[in-house]
């Protein structure tokens, strides 16, 4: 075969959930992405909102079966020796479309070839093939080692957040929104009595603006005594979609090079954005008026190529106390508008 050798690895990834400006919910999905020659394979597919079959929220038996399938220890699920590489993050149905490829062994090597977008049992390579991707040849030991390690790994991702604040109504709404997109949330005013084993289940702590420094320090001490490293979020404003986005960002523990959206600056009537690969970016402005009512404005929704970009902002959408949320399918950033 003519496939060139490529390195194979795995890395944690996520499809960012969130509460969108129109009130819709986007489900959060944690998954393991395929790293080919040091770069996420998903990034080579432009603006594709999809996850690999190696998702953290599938039952352990199904997760194990997916790993074994990629190791060719089970029969191919689709005709022609084809396997699903990325699928719909909401339902995983083939009818929604999926990226598939032929996976086969050649001696001790594994080869991925004939990538295609597929919506039924048969792939049309002429019409829907990804002609610029692959084929990839992976050394067998490297390939088996990476996938085999998943079967021994601790899959318990800490997708829970502890909410601490003075406005109980806001915390209740925030917890409900987080649970809707797949993130566990609990509310407390004092973490000192929480058992260490329970503290270890949290990946982040979010403080409301009214929480004083003494209270924050006590919470940090509780986690330090339990030997737990968590992300701390200082809530920017009592705006639910904004707070959800802050928490989503805090729970994202990927290295910078594994993210699509890497920079957001909000100043001088512009949003400065940097992306690492071509993708769709949506920017929403949230602001509080003098009566503390929330206003949301979609200020940008379009495809950006890799690099840095400046997006002009409507002065009406960012006057007063305002904030920007920028989203791609797998990343989210939040920034307060400089005044």
Automatic annotation (TrEMBL):
<protein>
    <submittedName>
        <fullName>Oxidoreductase</fullName>
    </submittedName>
</protein>
